[in-house]
Amino acid sequence: MAGEPQRYGPPGRTTGHGELAGIGLELFTQRLAGTGRVCGVQFRPFAPDRPVSAWTGRRLPYGTAAEAAAVLGPDGEDRCVAALDALLLARGPHPAPQARQAMELARRIRTDRTVRRVSALARDAGLPVRTLQRLFADWVGVPPKWVVLRHRLHDALERAGCADGVDWAALAAELGYSDQVHLVRDFTATIGVSPAAYASSSATTAKWSEGHTPSTGPSPARRTDRTRPVPSAAGSPVWM
């Protein structure tokens, strides 16, 4: 969905503010205008007073104007980060055992590509499927099936960006999809373009890069859709 311009300098808002962004479920565009500073952190859940899923897909005000000024005011990135650390640690976060278990299971999905079904993950964790789903809702913010799917698509993105052609039917089977149609549908819904269009764009960018050096022309912008954040955080407070 298209976003309104986010202004960091005049005209418009000139005072700092903070927000808490939960895990995003849809494509979005954020246009920036003006100049300014941003300081943010992605963190793991620490005994929230509500399920982490309550923040999913939402962006909420966070902190006060004075706290935003304290974070953004110091000179240099290191001092801003230190100020942000001090502000958050002063609130006394205490990770709960359930949070550690949820993060470990999310890490396993990310690192073990053989994890393709929620039922198998639940069995290996010694949990009923419904208990696993509640654990992820409380401490990750999205269902375990969503996490598995997201990492499947990460793999598909990497393969689509390779110079060699991709056998999409074979890749769909390798990633645990029932057929190629389901992979293409999920890929397009998540990335915003079809696998073929993404692969074509990646190939064009690669060819352009091979013919240009810093002395002969500008380097192309990096594709950020290959490095979407993994769902391992309760939310991301950002001061702007």
What's the short version?
The chain is of the alpha+beta class and 240 residues long.
Task: Explain what the structure shows.
This protein is α+β, with helices and mostly antiparallel strands and 240 residues long. It is built from nine helices and six strands, in the order βββββαααααααααβ. The strands form two sheets. A four-stranded antiparallel sheet has the order 4-6-2-5. It has a two-stranded parallel sheet with strand order 1-3. Helix 1 (65-72) runs antiparallel to helix 2, helix 3 packs across helix 5 and helix 6 (144-160) crosses helix 8 (180-191). The model is unreliable at 1-14 and 213-234 (pLDDT under 50).
Largest β sheet strand count, sense and barrel closure: 4 strands, antiparallel
DSSP summary: helix tally: 9
Order of helices and strands: EEEEEHHHHHHHHHE
Task: Supply Rg.
Answer: 21 Å
The general outline is globular
Care to count the β-strands? 6
Fraction of residues in β-strands? 5-15%
Alpha-carbon distance between the termini? 21 Å
Give the strand order, joined by hyphens, for the main sheet.
Answer: 4-6-2-5
Q: Which ranges are low-confidence, i.e. pLDDT below 50, for 5 or more consecutive residues?
A: 1-14, 213-234
* Mean of pLDDT: 76
Helix share, percent: 40-55%
Q: Structural class, judged by helices and strands?
A: alpha+beta
Keywords:
about 240 residues, alpha+beta, two-stranded parallel ribbon, 6 strands, about 5% strand, globular, disordered N terminus
How are the SSEs placed, and which strands pair?
Elements: E1 6-7, E2 18-21, E3 32-33, E4 39-40, E5 59-61, H1 65-72, H2 77-89, H3 97-111, H4 118-125, H5 129-139, H6 144-160, H7 168-174, H8 180-191, H9 195-210, E6 236-239
